[in-house]
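does this look right to u?? 2-acetamido-2-deoxy-beta-D-glucopyranose version
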Amino acid sequence: ETGTSCPAACSCSNQASRVICTRRELAEVPASIPVNTRYLNLQENSIQVIRTDTFKHLRHLEILQLSKNLVRKIEVGAFNGLPSLNTLELFDNRLTTVPTQAFEYLSKLRELWLRNNPIESIPSYAFNRVPSLRRLDLGELKRLEYISEAAFEGLVNLRYLNLGMCNLKDIPNLTALVRLEELELSGNRLDLIRPGSFQGLTSLRKLWLMHAQVATIERNAFDDLKSLEELNLSHNNLMSLPHDLFTPLHRLERVHLNHNPWHCNCDVLWLSWWLKETVPSNTTCCARCHAPAGLKGRYIGELDQSHFTCYAGTKHHHHHH
Ligand SMILES: *[C@@H]1O[C@H](CO)[C@@H](O)[C@H](O)[C@H]1NC(C)=O
Ligand SMILES: *[C@@H]1O[C@H](CO)[C@@H](O)[C@H](O)[C@H]1NC(C)=O
Ligand SMILES: *[C@@H]1O[C@H](CO)[C@@H](O)[C@H](O)[C@H]1NC(C)=O
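got this back:
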C-alpha cells in the first residue's frame, strides 16, 4: 500500500492531505484513506456506524468531518490512532448518547461538535477523556432530559460552551469550567436564575441568554462573573432586575436588555443610573419601559427620580447618588 492513492468516491488534493468525500451517498467510511491525510470531509452521507479502528492509520489527521450523516453508533475505539486530531465534527446525526469512550486518546482534540443529535442525557465525566477541549457545541439537543452534576468535570481548558436550544429548565453545574469565556444558553426555558448558577465562572467574558423565558434573576446571581464584558438578556420575561445586580461586574460594557416587559418604577432607578454611567449611548441596550402606561416606550437609561415618587421606608429602594 503506497497510501497516497485517492479512494474512488473521494477527491483529493495537496498530495492527498485533503480528502473530500461529501454527498457521495456513502454508507460506510471508505477504506484506504491516504495515510498522509490531514483533512477528511465525509459530510452529507448516509454513514450509520463508525467502527473500531476505522481511522487507525491516519496519524496526521487534524480535522474529521462526519456531520450530516445518520450516525447512531460510534464503537469504542472508533477514533483510535488519531494523535493529531484537533477538530471532530459530528453535528446533525442520530446519536442518542455521548460516545464518551470513543474519545479516549484524542489528546490534541480542541473542538467537538455534537449539536443537533437526539442525545437524551449527559452523564458524569462525559468529556473527561478530552481535557484538551476548548470548544464544545452541544446546541439543539432537543431530546435532552438530564445533565449530571459532574457532566463537565475535567474540562479545565474549555473556553466556549454552547448549550442553546436544549430545552433546559435549569442551568447545569458549570463550576468545573474554570477557564470558560463564552457561554451560550439562549433558547432554553430557564424561568429563574439562582445565585450560584454561574459559580466559579470567573473567566467568563460573554454570556448569551436570549429567548430563554427568564422571568426572575435573583440577587447576587452574577457575583462570580468578574470578567464579564457582554451580557445578552434580550427577548425574555424580565420586569425588573435585583438592585445592584451589575455592581460586581467591573468589566461589563455591553448589555442587551431589549424585548423584556420592564416595569419602570423606583426599583428600576439603579439600572437607569448604571446604564447612564456604563453604557455611553442609551440605544445600545434598548431597554424600554413596558409599564406603567405613562412611561411605556421610554428608554430606562433616560429615566431619573423625577419620573416617579419614591418613598423611603417602602419596599422600594430609595436611591441616593
Ligand atoms: C458542581 O461541580 C463542582 C466542580 O466540579 C463540584 O465540586 C460540586 O460538587 C458540584 N455540585 C454538585 C451539587 O454536585
Ligand atoms: C444580543 O442582543 C442584541 C439585541 O437583541 C443583538 O443585536 C445581538 O446580536 C445579540 N448578541 C448576540 C451575540 O447574538
Ligand atoms: C438618549 O438619551 C438622551 C437623554 O438622556 C435623549 O435625549 C435621547 O433621545 C436618547 N436617545 C434615544 C435614541 O432615545
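The first helix runs from residue 269 to 278. idk if thats expected tbh
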